[in-house]
Write a structure and sequence with these properties.
Elements (H helix, E strand, L loop, with lengths): L5 H9 L2 H14 L2 H12 L4 H8 L3 H13 L3 E6 L2 E6 L2 H15 L21
Length: 127
């Protein structure tokens, strides 16, 4: 089977360098286990900083700093109720990203080689 460069050309044309850099920053923000744990918690329910600090046995200042970084990358939003501030995921894409990442690492029985073919337009050989 001849290798085609169609896919790499598509990726180069479809995504600007700025979009790729933004996506890389997003993954760096998610890549920290403590921040990922916050996102996973917020995927289930909104919470205030003190609730999150209590749930993870951490200082409020530590949790606030993590939330600030996640907000800067537009992964988390905050909602004010008078003096109270709750945090939640920015949108369903963030929930899906976190859920897919955790689901991916929990999959068992993965075998080597190319088995995922859905994104390839041409059928891959069976050998």
């Amino acid at each position: 089977m001849k290798c085609s460069s169609e896919h790499s050309i598509f990726l180069q044309l479809e995504h600007s360098p700025e979009q790729l850099e933004r996506a890389a920053r997003l993954f760096r923000a998610i890549g920290d286990p403590a921040r990922l744990r916050l996102l996973a918690y917020l995927a289930v329910r909104e919470a205030c900083v003190s609730e999150l600090a209590s749930a993870f046995g951490e200082q409020i200042s530590t949790v606030s700093q993590r939330l600030r970084l996640l907000r800067a990358e537009k992964l988390v939003v905050r909602r004010r109720w008078g003096k109270h501030v709750n945090y939640g995921l920015a949108d369903r894409h963030v929930a899906e990203l976190v859920g897919n990442a955790l689901e991916h690492v929990n999959e068992s029985g993965r075998s080597e080689g190319f088995q995922y073919q859905e994104r390839f337009p041409n059928e891959l050989p069976n050998s």
